[in-house]
Design the sequence.
């Protein structure tokens, strides 16, 4: 578990289920803490896991920097037959995905189970 | 001691000999560590003395049958211990005196009235007034548990901790959380303090505050007294004290009234809440008095207090401004500072979660664009953020020292072929989340407007 909430970033908890990594995030996905998030994602991808589920129920803010980190992971993941999926975003955060149309690339699901079952 | 009797007036706060604290955070931290070491030593001494005193009666029994000589030795020993305690008391008094704040001359727009009354024993009451960057000022009042040298040393540690953490931070909640963490690590089990910390923007007159179980300060305005209370446990005891931050828009001539619990002894009631109610009533009825008289009157009402008492009154003489400018270096880590100066003002105005989210997002995008693309992370270049707010709207301008850019040339990031590229997403979010945006001619400054929710509704 990595916790950058004190400096305005996110706390990140990873759980591996077979070939999927479920990332439980809380706090804010933005400029502050962006390096930590990038490192965590790189670690997962370099470890050969390309199916990522972001459980975002506890994330209350996202900016273009946070979106950029996810899209970076998305490019690598989809280039390796993987995916990036988002679960349970708070309404204001979901709006940011919808406005930027990134929800068309990254599926948004209600639960981790639904995200895992989708294909 | 000669200063024991009667109310002690505090113009000697400006005493040039009074020790002022270093402004360099590294130096502050060094002194914090040194004080922590002193605290540990002092506490060990006190504990040894207490153990000595407790154990003495046991050795009295055999002595009572023994020689006068042994009796004399024991009484000498006790006398020495008493002298040591007395000396500790003097050291504590001196420490407390040396740490009284020197009121900064730059605070001419606020009239202060300060009173302390020493109690029959040295307590750990303290207050501080700290000048922060960008015309913010912090008011602090706190009361350390216990008394004597340990309380005085914890007081010193606490005051340094507040000074250290206030150096780079404007949000009282963050400062209080940091101080809590520092005190948890540095003080011995069982010691804690109650504290109230308010941060005032001396331009827009916005007051943000956190009350960590301290007795309620009041803002007195037009015969009304508003208590400043929030959720949150005392400082130095809990990992997660759950501090809540609240805010309030102050006006010219508002009076801020901070005190430690000895003041409530003049309004004694069944419990602290009831005493605070009585004090509130007193402030409402006497709110018309000049701030100095009000504070003097309250200090005079107390009987000889057991613990020290501190009273701090502050009258705002400043006129409320509508505009504020903050200049930062081109470092992404400066973003929270800008945010702390702007978002609380909108929170206090009632912009609501949705609009605050929008402004927070647009502000981050604009400031980070200016730092990364405008100034290209050159930290010798500055970013200027100016903020204007009235009853209808908030207007934020962000300017950099870069080459400027043509907003029409930024590709639409929501076009299907651009979705994977990240450029332009920030600007698109600003357009989407703010009501109006415009650029200066050379493309080095963006101005963004958000209508107040009530003004937007009537459009």
Sequence:
């Amino acid at each position: 578990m990595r916790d950058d909430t004190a400096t305005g970033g996110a706390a990140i908890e990873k759980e591996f289920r077979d070939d999927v990594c479920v990332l439980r995030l809380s706090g804010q996905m933005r400029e502050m803490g962006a390096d930590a998030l990038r490192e965590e994602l790189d670690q997962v991808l370099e470890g050969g896991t390309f199916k990522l589920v972001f459980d975002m129920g506890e994330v209350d803010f996202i900016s273009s920097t946070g979106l950029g980190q996810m899209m970076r992971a998305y490019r690598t993941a989809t280039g390796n037959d993987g995916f990036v999926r988002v679960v349970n975003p708070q309404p204001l955060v979901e709006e940011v995905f919808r406005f930027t149309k990134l929800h068309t690339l990254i599926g948004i699901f209600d639960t981790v189970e639904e995200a895992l079952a989708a294909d | 001691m000669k200063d024991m009797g009667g109310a002690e007036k505090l113009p000697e706060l400006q005493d040039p000999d009074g020790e002022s604290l270093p402004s360099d955070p590294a130096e502050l931290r060094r002194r914090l560590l040194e004080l922590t070491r002193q605290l540990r030593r002092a506490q060990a001494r006190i504990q040894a003395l207490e153990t000595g005193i407790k154990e003495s009666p046991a050795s009295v029994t055999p002595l009572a049958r023994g020689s006068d000589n042994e009796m004399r030795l024991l009484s000498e020993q006790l006398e020495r211990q008493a002298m040591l305690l007395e000396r500790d008391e003097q050291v504590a008094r001196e420490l407390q005196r040396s740490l009284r704040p020197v009121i900064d001359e730059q605070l001419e727009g606020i009239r202060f009235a300060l009173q302390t009354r020493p109690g029959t024993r040295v307590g750990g009451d303290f207050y501080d007034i700290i000048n922060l960057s960008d015309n913010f000022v912090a008011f602090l009042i706190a009361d350390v548990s216990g008394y004597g040298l340990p309380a005085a040393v914890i007081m010193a540690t606490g005051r340094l901790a507040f000074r250290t953490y206030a150096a780079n931070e404007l949000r009282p909640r963050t400062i209080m959380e940091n101080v809590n963490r520092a005190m948890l690590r540095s003080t011995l089990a069982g010691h804690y303090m109650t504290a109230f910390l308010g941060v005032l923007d001396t331009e827009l007159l916005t007051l943000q505050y956190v009350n960590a179980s301290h007795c309620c300060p009041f803002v007195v305005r037009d015969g009304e007294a508003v208590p400043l209370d929030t959720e949150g446990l005392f400082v130095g005891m809990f990992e997660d004290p759950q501090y809540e931050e609240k805010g309030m828009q102050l006006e010219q001539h508002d009076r801020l009234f901070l005190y430690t619990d000895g003041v409530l002894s003049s309004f004694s009631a069944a419990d602290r809440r009831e005493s605070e109610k009585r004090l509130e009533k007193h402030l409402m009825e006497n709110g018309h008095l000049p701030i100095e008289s009000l504070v003097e009157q309250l200090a005079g009402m107390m009987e000889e207090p057991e613990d020290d008492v501190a009273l701090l009154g502050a009258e705002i003489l400043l006129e409320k401004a509508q505009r504020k400018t903050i200049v930062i270096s081109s470092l992404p880590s400066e973003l929270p500072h800008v945010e702390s100066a702007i978002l609380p003002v909108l929170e206090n105005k009632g912009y609501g979660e949705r609009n605050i989210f929008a402004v927070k997002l647009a502000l981050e995008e604009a400031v980070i664009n200016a730092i990364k693309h405008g100034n290209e992370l050159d930290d010798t270049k500055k970013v200027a953020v100016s903020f204007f707010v009235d009853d209808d709207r908030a207007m934020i301008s962000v300017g950099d020292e870069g080459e400027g850019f043509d907003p029409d040339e930024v590709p639409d990031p929501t076009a299907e072929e651009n979705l994977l590229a990240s450029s332009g997403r920030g600007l698109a979010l600003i357009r989407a989340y703010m009501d109006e945006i415009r650029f200066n001619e050379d493309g080095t400054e963006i101005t963004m407007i958000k209508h107040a929710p009530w003004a937007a509704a009537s459009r």
Observations:
- The mean pLDDT of chain A is 93.
- Chain A touches chain B at residues 6, 8, 30-32, 61, 63-65, 67-68, 71, 74-75, 92, 96, 99-102, 104-105 (CB under 8 Å).
- The beta strands of chain A are 2-3, 10-17, 20-29, 51-62, 83-87, 107-109.
- The longest strand of chain A covers residues 51-62.
